[in-house]
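User: Hello! I'm new to structural biology and keep hearing that structure can be predicted from sequence alone. Could you demonstrate with Lipopolysaccharide export system permease protein? Please show me the input and the output so I can see what each looks like.

Assistant: Of course. The first part below is the input, the amino acid sequence of Lipopolysaccharide export system permease protein. The second part is the output, the predicted structure written as tokens.
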Amino acid sequence: MRPSLNFFASRTVSWYMARTFISRTFAVLAGLVVILMSLDLLGESGDILAQPGNGQAAIWHYVSLRLPQIIQRFVPFAALLGTLVTLVRMNQNSEIISMKAAGISAHQILAPLVVASLGIAVLNFWFNDHVVTRATAALSAWQDVQYGPIPAEKSLVSNIWVRFGDDLIHVDEVTGKGRAAVLHNVAYYDREKDRLVAIANAATGVPAGDRWKLINVKRFDVATGNTTQLDAVLIAQGLDPSRFTLANVNGDNLSFGALAHTIEQLQAAGRPTTALRTQLWHKISGPLSIILMPLLAGIAGFGLARSGRLFIRVIVGMALGFTYFVADNFALAMGNIGAYPPLLAAWAPMLLFLLIGEAVLVRTEE
């Protein structure tokens, strides 16, 4: 029978394939989460209970914060294993052979799984953006105090460099936020066309209208070599106070929109953003990698089950999937240190293994 050129075989077959894949993917995910959460608790429960006042409630609080991280991280693994379980079982029951005898191609068999994976990827992106980022921020703050009481936020950052036009501003410490920000030990480098004109050192700096007011200033003029003592100097018209408080940004703690806005502010402040831009793009490419899993594991579904090579095909499918995760983590690490451009670090592994998975499928079946 001549194979159909339609993307899907039929509504009945597509719905059956997608439903089976989704149910087994979430079953695998549930098992992984239970096992990994139990192992994680074995390592962390002692530290949690070591803090005076922590008991069973603290353990459950830790579980509520850690569980979203585990779910989000292992959804692609669950999709890979769910595809393998689905296709191997159908192969053993001769369902794949029946579909192919009816003229359904390998791509049409996998198409419902890919579409279902896309839905899971969208759900995973939303879950990461609205749940995981908040849980990660709360857990990081709790772990910073060794699972003790979290003190009130001091809104203090240190060793800040800001570029404003041609000028550079260095601040030892910043307390407060917004219009209540106070700069401590300020060094203002007045430059014109990359030529240093003067250096002003001040004990403090505070917002004054649309400028910043430096108090108790020593100004050194480069051209004359003279030092002048001034009570106050106004600088940096239009400089936003938030640019002094953007320090130690953790992309895992921010949603996609919040991280994109933070990157814009950091770029305006003249700070490096390569690692954060890599994380930003990976917030999209990471969940989308789920759509690769049916393609990489598809090799396990084709060929005769009684040929004795089914186990080998399962191993190859698992190897392709886990090799992708290794390549993705390696590229992400290279992007974080600036060795790879952000777009390449986030998207290259996915595109590479998309081609590999398609080539393997065509080579083995089509």
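User: So the tokens describe the shape?

Assistant: Right, they're a compact way of writing down the 3D structure. Reading them back into a model, for example: The first helix runs from residue 11 to 50.
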